[in-house]
Amino acid sequence: DIYVMGPRDTWLYTCSCPDCKKGYAAAGTNWQDHIDTFNSGKGSEIYYAFLNKVQAAIDQSNPGKHIASFNYMDYVAYPKTLTVNTNIYCGFAECFGSGTDPVMVKRMMDFYEPWRTKMPGRNQICIWRYDGWDWEFSLMRGGACFPKWYPAHLARTLRMYAKDGARGLFYCGINNYIDGWLDYKLLDDPELDLDA
Length: 196
Description:
Elements: E1 2-4, H1 18-26, H2 44-61, E2 66-71, E3 89-94, H3 102-118, E4 127-129, H4 133-140, H5 151-163, E5 169-171, H6 177-188
Parallel strand pairs: 1-2, 2-3, 3-4, 4-5
Helix pairs in contact: 5-6
């Protein structure tokens, strides 16, 4: 019933063809701008316009069938210039990082909120989490990562997803030590008393 679609694991806004340039201009972005963080939303206009066309064709040929995709990288933002077809299922790819950087947490929540409010029940097919990134990047560079400790942030985030009706969580790596254990405990019971 659901066909999963997605671009390659790279930024979309690097394409310099005339059609894509029009999409960046519509979103108020310059195709030559360089990304300042992993998630920017600079490619959202062209990506979701394409998905809308695919879903419209599916609605005609196979009513009741859907496509699904992640909100990720430079297409993490809900588009500014169009409404995403509500027959499309999306899964938010959050990059909260360590959870201790309030600027990054606010940035990701700013990206998440429009999906939650404009596509209730359609954006929570699966949340993609990156809790293990710090470990991954440290190990790739031959270093070691200081163990994380942010139980309150984990609890807030997982409780939010439970309240929003997330149907699943995909962990692209998981924390070591206590936070990894706590992740699993909160998946069993999001209302777990952290102080008990």
